[in-house]
Phosphoesterase RecJ-like protein
Amino acid sequence: MFDHREKHLFTALVDELSRAGKIALCGHVMPDGDCLGAMLALGLALRQMGKRVVFYSPDPVPEMYGFLPGVHEVQVEINEQLPLELFISVDCSVPDRLGHFKELLDRAGRVVVIDHHAGSVAFGNVYLNCPAFAAAGEIVYELLTMLPVVIDKDIATCLYVAMATDTGSFRYDNTSYRTHLRAAELLKLGFPVARINKLLYEEKPLISLQVLGAALQTLGISKCGRVAWMSMQRATLHSLNATDEHVDGIINYPRMIRGVELALFFRELEDEKYKVSLRSKYYLDVNKLAACFGGGGHPRAAGCVVNGKLEDIKSRFLEAALKELKDE
Amino acid sequence: MFDHREKHLFTALVDELSRAGKIALCGHVMPDGDCLGAMLALGLALRQMGKRVVFYSPDPVPEMYGFLPGVHEVQVEINEQLPLELFISVDCSVPDRLGHFKELLDRAGRVVVIDHHAGSVAFGNVYLNCPAFAAAGEIVYELLTMLPVVIDKDIATCLYVAMATDTGSFRYDNTSYRTHLRAAELLKLGFPVARINKLLYEEKPLISLQVLGAALQTLGISKCGRVAWMSMQRATLHSLNATDEHVDGIINYPRMIRGVELALFFRELEDEKYKVSLRSKYYLDVNKLAACFGGGGHPRAAGCVVNGKLEDIKSRFLEAALKELKDE
């Protein structure tokens, strides 16, 4: 199940956790379901072992995760009272992504990392980074099976949320048969799976739907049907009292259209200045496309900031995109 | 895993399948992913056993399922050439829901039913109805483990689609730990899980998004925030060249709003005649609410047809709903 290196690291981590009495767990900036779920599950388990545990997050917890057991204990400021024996960086293997908690790396007696994001530079006393796992919550699940703890309903809920959110409800290509096996073990513990999924996906701010409605009014599609786009002006967002949070995920809608390979979302930042988000469905390298405009990202998700009038920017992207799509 | 009754029925079914040479499989009207996936998986497996198999569907296969292995063989008309030894009703235990294929129940030598919908009257020689299974595809999976067949990538794809669609990507409360165990076994066979989920959920007709955009323009919410609604006029649908297919699922959007328990969707059928769809999130019995207006359905999903002006109908539903919500 694990390779030799991973097995050794899991053992070393168990050792670190067993020895420390006062432990801080911290996730990355802009916390998501995996980061929070994995952190809380591990912390709740460590408490079963008699440890003193604090939960840190460099950014506030999004309202949608307010139902997670233990989440109300998550602190965004450093708790000076606790002389730290162990600092655990969860779902984060880049020190800068710990925000202001980065300074604890020097102040804690020991530092360990539990993560699954590839391509980082190791730091800390134990650096457990397993990119084959879909979620940090999966790594924590395996870790808990090696510790003298009971996975109760609260811990199962946290781990399930970690796995379900980071795999897009088991849809993304990071989903392995092991993810389903772990989910099966968690479901056996009997937490209310349908209710938790409703709390995750059916409790959206009203404003998000209003922003979606406004964005869909701008929906356009190329003659060939392979590129679709939407845009959002500052005035519209202002009139809806909308913030960044409410625009999140809107780029998925033009990508959902049959035949579309590339989706673009143009969001006005200032007069004649737009943030452009790019998403592709099956094959187009949008990282490469965004690089033509001074941006970057990943093969299926990238972004850049471009100056100019909306119609001109749109034309430039469409021209560049159609050239790329033609080459395929 | 199975109770005594089910075990006996599985054995009887294996016996029927082993004896028959010419077999027709048929799903229900308005076929969905479970009905098609389960039917195709079983048929492909029966061919491994040397059986002659035809696939029937009373309604055409929706375009979104066009990627399913074997789906292009599905016929909407009766193939007179084949004297039927065995007719298998898949995901359907109400003869009328077989549409015009219902007549084959009398013409086939033997009839068996494989379904998971509760509350029907038994018919046929073997009536295997297991409501504890989330999907007919799950029942077929168990059946295949009892037959001399190999679950290959094509069969795995069909079974996965059956389970994933009928559980809302493993989100609904019919999802059991066994569903995840079965999904894990299927994923081991190595079909492209992310690609299949994109084909299912990211290949929507452009018109569907345009209809959603138009519907969101009508989004309303009660003062208390517990009831939200949208509406759709015939003229709007007409101007977008939209059909029933493009309106499907739109009722989910008002229900997604934080704090909303009841979602309503008013769709104009004729002048002053509306189809009203009702959905609740956690607890409200919309079957009961719809019954007050001459309709019905299930506790979380119901509908009715009401005459009157849109604003009047809206007021009547809101009044009735707020009374129910107050009682909770």
Notes: Chain A has a mean pLDDT of 95. Chain A has two domains: 4-201, 209-327. Chain A touches chain B through 50 residues (CB under 8 Å). The CA atoms of residues 262 and 277 of chain A lie 10 Å apart.
